[in-house]
C-alpha cells in the first residue's frame, strides 16, 4: 500500500521498547525486525523499494513518506533521547540514500 503520510503519536513512545513496537506496528516492519536503530534505519531506507519487504508503508521512487509526530513537544520534553534518535536517524536515512544517488525518502513533521 502506498502512503504519503504516516502519523505516530509521540505519547506512545516512552522507552526504546515502546518506540520500536509503535514504529513496527505503524510501518508494518517484518517479523525479523531487530528492534534497534540500525534495523529502524534499514527499514526506513527501503520505503521506496517495496520489493525489499521491509515495510508495508511504501512510496514511489522520487516521492517521500511524511512522518508526522503528534505531541512532539511532549516527546522531546519527556524522552529527549528518543526524540533526538528519531531526528538523527531520519536524517541519516536520507543521507544514506543521497550518497548512492537516490532521492531522499523521509520527511518529518512535528505537531506540538
Descriptors for this entry?
globular; 43% helix; three-stranded parallel β-sheet; 4 helices; 112 residues; alpha/beta; Barnase, Chain D; single chain
Structural description of this entry:
By secondary structure, the chain is α/β, with parallel strands linked by helices. The chain has a single domain (5-111), classed as Barstar-like (Barnase, Chain D, 2-Layer Sandwich). 43% of the residues lie in helices and 15% in strands. It has 4 helices and 3 strands. The protein has helices spanning 16-27, 37-45, 72-78, 80-99, and strands spanning 5-9, 65-70, 106-111. The protein has a 3-stranded parallel β-sheet with strand order 1-2-3, covered by helices on one side.
Short description:
The chain has 112 residues and is an alpha/beta fold. Helices cover 43% and strands 15% of the residues. It has a single domain, classed as Barnase, Chain D (2-Layer Sandwich), CATH 3.30.370.
Amino acid at each position: 500500500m502506498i502512503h504519503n503520510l504516516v502519523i505516530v503519536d509521540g505519547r506512545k513512545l516512552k522507552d526504546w521498547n515502546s518506540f520500536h513496537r509503535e514504529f513496527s506496528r505503524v510501518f508494518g516492519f517484518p517479523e525479523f525486525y531487530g528492534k534497534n536503530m540500525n534495523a529502524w534505519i534499514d527499514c526506513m531506507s527501503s520505503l521506496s523499494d517495496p520489493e525489499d519487504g521491509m515495510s508495508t508503508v511504501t512510496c514511489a521512487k522520487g516521492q517521500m513518506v511524511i512522518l508526522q509526530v503528534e505531541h512532539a513537544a511532549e516527546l522531546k520534553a519527556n524522552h529527549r533521547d528518543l526524540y533526538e534518535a528519531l531526528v538523527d536517524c531520519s536524517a541519516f536515512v536520507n543521507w544514506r540514500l543521497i550518497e548512492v544517488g537516490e532521492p531522499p525518502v523521509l520527511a518529518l513533521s512535528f505537531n506540538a
